[in-house]
Design a protein that fits this description.
Length: 292
């Protein structure tokens, strides 16, 4: 049962040390609001990120399996990252983004839903491994609410940028995406937030690590076909700017958590809207020409 504790000590979900339930910050690890304004003890079983990583992993894996099971005959083997790839029509129905869905079909909300979909077994495996590591890390530095806000806005900026760049008809690896998906766009937002955190706190080792990682991934994206570099760059920029506005040196407020929950609700709603909208158009017949 959910019960609020207003006095005494609680265990910090990040470092496991005792802190006051009203403490603004853990004096050992620096986590903001370790007591979550008194709700921390009741929510402790969800983890330091309040279960957000588990929600993302469960949602992504569930949608990946749904896409595979709905059209087994459409499963493809497209190279390394496209191994065991669901049918493109199924990912479009569930909310894949890109210039096609946004500009041809008016599905602007897919800048949120695309972050929950993946184009192959290795694609989802690598992204979920990063989610497991990065979500709790950023939550401990910014607070859960602000972490979810960063994740969500990075998804919007990343998929929005690559869709607009596609219209420029740039050559080769400079081109944007007509169809794109994956949790890597919001993941790069978390990397951008860590880069900003290193700048704001003077911990330049973090900033250097994030810079090196970004450069490595951009080179990887040029060498390996099918990697959406613009979504990664947009996600990184979106995460950095959002983190800068939220400022990790300022305490997390209760309204940040409420806004974070609203962001999570918007992401879930975007998938529902994608499916309902697609079915109302007679999916997948309406979009068959997209793959010709």
């Amino acid at each position: 049962m959910l019960k609020r504790q207003t006095e005494g000590s609680v265990v910090c979900p990040n470092c496991g040390r005792l802190v006051g339930v009203r403490d603004e910050r853990c004096f050992i690890c620096g986590r903001w609001n370790p007591g979550l304004w008194g709700w921390g003890p009741s929510l402790a079983r969800l983890g330091g990120d309040l279960g957000f990583a588990n929600i993302v992993i469960g949602g992504c894996v569930g949608l990946f399996l749904i896409a595979l099971l709905r059209d087994p005959s459409g499963i493809q083997m497209r190279g390394l990252l496209g191994l065991l790839a669901p049918a493109g029509s199924e990912n479009l129905l569930l909310g894949a983004s890109g210039a096609g869905p946004i500009f041809d079909f008016g599905r602007w909300w897919t800048v949120l839903s695309a972050a929950w979909l993946h184009g192959g077994l290795l694609h989802i495996l690598f992204n979920m491994m990063w989610i497991r590591q990065m979500v709790p890390a950023v939550a401990s530095l910014f607070g859960v609410g602000r972490m979810i806000m960063i994740y969500t806005i990075a998804s919007v900026v990343g998929f929005g940028l690559t869709s607009f760049v596609y219209l420029l008809h740039l050559p080769g690896p400079l081109a944007g995406a007509g169809l794109t998906l994956g949790a890597s766009a919001p993941l790069f937002g978390l990397f951008g937030a860590l880069y900003l955190y290193g700048q704001r706190t003077g911990n330049h080792s973090i900033s250097r690590q994030m810079t090196q990682f970004l450069l490595i991934m951009l080179v990887f994206g040029v060498v390996v076909p099918g990697v959406d570099n613009w979504a990664h760059l947009g996600g990184f920029a979106g995460g950095y700017l959002t983190a800068k506005i939220l400022d990790p040196l300022k305490p997390e407020q209760q309204h940040h958590l409420l806004l974070g929950l609203a962001c999570l609700g918007a992401m879930v709603l975007s998938i529902v809207v994608s499916v309902l909208h697609g079915m109302s158009l007679g999916w997948p017949e309406t979009i068959a020409h997209f793959f010709r």
